[in-house]
Amino acid sequence: MQEIKCPHCGQVFTIDEANYASIVQQIRDHAFAEELEQRKNEALRAMQAENETRLTQLKAQLENAETEKELAVRNALAKEQEKALGQTRELEILRSELAAQQKIAEAERAAAVEAERTAREKAVSELKNRLILTQSAFEQEKLRLSSENEQRIRQKDEEIAYYKDLKTRLSTKMVGESLEQHCEIEFNRLRMSAFPRAAFDKDNDAREGSKGDYIFRDYDEDGTEYISIMFEMKNEMSETATKHKNEDFFKKLDKDRREKKCEYAVLVSVLEADNELYNTGIVDVSYRFPKMYVIRPQFFLPLISLLTNASKGSLEYRRKLQLAERQNLDVEDFNRQLLDFKDKFSRNYRLASERFQKAIEEIDKTIDHLQKTKDALLSSENNLRLANSKAEELSVKKLTRGNPTMRRKFEDAGVEL
Fold first, then answer.
1. Where are the alpha helices (DSSP H) in 242-297?
2. What are 27-62's pLDDT values in tens digits?
3. Angle between helices 315-393 and 300-313 (to 10 degrees)
4. Pairing mode, if any, of strands 264-269 and 283-284?
């Protein structure tokens, strides 16, 4: 049992262990709750004080930050204002320079416009002068061409009248001969002035079965032929029953050209008088046969001049070609001699090599024979040496050893043993 005294009235009373434990527990719980409340209040006060301190610090930091921010903003504004002032000044300078450049450009543009206007006026003046000169030259050329055309017309009329007269006066044989004579006369008329070294002769060589009418050959100062032309002349009367065509004679003309080794072939023809192809001028028919032309009689001399001038342009190349051919012949002759020398040298070398090899073989055989002889001599010398050695070692004593009969005979003969 436990006694408990009341703190207020002083009365003492007794309680059992269970109640005492319950009361003690209650007191303990109350004290713990009070202590817990007290500690809680203290913690709240400490926390509130700490929060107030932190709040004060944060306010101070905020005020400092605001101050720094304000200062930074002011500094930034000041820098931006200063930058803006600098840009304004640069802009004013650029505007001033741009205005000056615009003035210069306007002045240059005005000068260029003025120069262009002056140049145009000058060009217009020059064009006017050239136009006047051109018109004058055109009028002169027009008059000249008109005069030439009239002259050509008169010549054509004369030729037509000439050939009409020929047709009425000549036989078929005479028609062909007259064209040949016409060409020969035309050539001889200019032979000395235009073709002083040329030959224009009838083709009388019929060894190959056919021949042309004329062969033209011309030569340079050194006598080198640089052009040759085989000519065939064909004429026909309008009353002839059988009408030939120019192409009927191409194959024979090409054959004559190749057999007589001519460079060009020309058919001088008045056949197919209404054919516009042959009436236009010089007709190149090399699409049928190489280097072949068909002309009317009036183009006989112009064609010779044309081909001659063209060949003269290649005369230097022909000379170089002939020189190259001669040099090539010299080179071939040199190569031929060199090959002949190589063949002879190779044959002599082969014979000498064979004989040298045979001599080497004979020498090898001789050396082998001498070696055998040497070996035999050396063997003989060795045998002689052995024989000599044995002869030197030989004595009567050794000979009579084991032979008392011979020993006794040598002793009887007085030989010292």
1. 250-259, 276-279
2. 776 676 777 778 777 877 877 787 788 778 877 877
3. 30
4. unpaired
